[in-house]
Write a structure and sequence with these properties.
Strand content: 25-35%
Strand order of the largest sheet: 1-2
Order of helices and strands: EHEHEE
Structural class: alpha+beta
Number of helices: 2
Radius of gyration: 14 Å
Number of strands: 4
C-alpha cells in the first residue's frame, strides 16, 4: 500500500504502482474543481448506502500519539 500526498499525485506515479500490482491512496485537494466534487459525491452516496454497492470496505479508527489525536477513516 502506497500513500502519497497531493505533491506526488501524478498519473505516471499511479500507473507505475498499478504495473507493479500495488495499491495506492492519493490525496485529492479541494482546488481540483469538478473532479473533487465528483469524488465527494461518490463517497457521500456510498456512505449513505452503507457501502454495500461500492465494492469497498469502511473502517474508522482513532490514532493517538505525539500529542495529537486524529480520526482516521479507511474506505
Amino acid at each position: 500500500m502506497v500513500t502519497i500526498d497531493a505533491m506526488g499525485c501524478q498519473t505516471d506515479i499511479a500507473e507505475r504502482i498499478i504495473q507493479q500490482k500495488g495499491d495506492y491512496v492519493l490525496a485529492l485537494k479541494g482546488n481540483q474543481g469538478q473532479r473533487h466534487e465528483t469524488i465527494v459525491d461518490y463517497f457521500d452516496t456510498a456512505q449513505a448506502a452503507g457501502f454495500t454497492q461500492a465494492g469497498m470496505q469502511h473502517k474508522e479508527t482513532l490514532d493517538c500519539g505525539h500529542g495529537r489525536i486524529k480520526p482516521v477513516r479507511i474506505i
